[in-house]
Structures are given as structure tokens and as C-alpha cells.
Design goal:
Strand content: under 5%
Structural class: mainly alpha
Helix content: 55-70%
CATH class: Mainly Alpha
CATH topology: Non-ribosomal Peptide Synthetase Peptidyl Carrier Protein, Chain A
Number of domains: 1
CATH architecture: Orthogonal Bundle
Shape: globular
Distance between the termini: 16 Å
Radius of gyration: 11 Å
Largest sheet: none
Length: 76
């Protein structure tokens, strides 16, 4: 899941691969509130809903992966 989200960030938001580390925040990656809306829509394609507000609240990439994995587990 981490690699999938990382790939979305690289391809859709032009984030440089060298900017990633386990606890990187979306703010450190340069995402703003409009980017979070778009990211939440792209994450919905995995089959679980995560709002832009939730993305902003958790903030870190590793926490977003955990949240999405939890939602996917509950959905199945």
C-alpha cells in the first residue's frame, strides 16, 4: 500500500522520490488543501473512503497508509 500511495504522489503531484521517508508529512511533500481533495479521490479507487480532512488530520504518509489499510480491512 505504501508503494501504491508513493507512486500516486510521484505521478500525480510531482513529488520527488528522494523526498520520501517513513514519517514524511504531506506538508513536507508540498501538498496543499486542494491536493488533499484530489488525493482522497484517488485513494477511493482502492475501495475505501478517506476524506481530505482525515488526510490533513493524520498528516504523515505512514499514518495514511495505516488508516487506509484499516478501512480496507473493515470493508472486506
Amino acid at each position: 500500500m505504501y508503494q501504491d500511495i508513493k507512486q500516486i504522489l510521484i505521478s500525480s503531484f510531482q513529488v520527488a522520490e528522494e523526498d520520501f521517508h517513513d514519517e514524511v508529512t504531506l506538508e513536507e511533500l508540498g501538498l496543499d488543501s486542494l491536493d488533499l481533495v484530489e488525493l482522497s479521490m484517488q485513494l477511493a479507487e482502492f475501495g475505501a473512503s478517506v476524506t481530505d480532512d482525515e488526510l490533513a488530520e493524520v498528516g504523515r504518509l505512514d499514518a495514511i497508509v495505516g488508516l487506509l489499510e484499516t478501512r480496507l480491512t473493515k470493508a472486506s
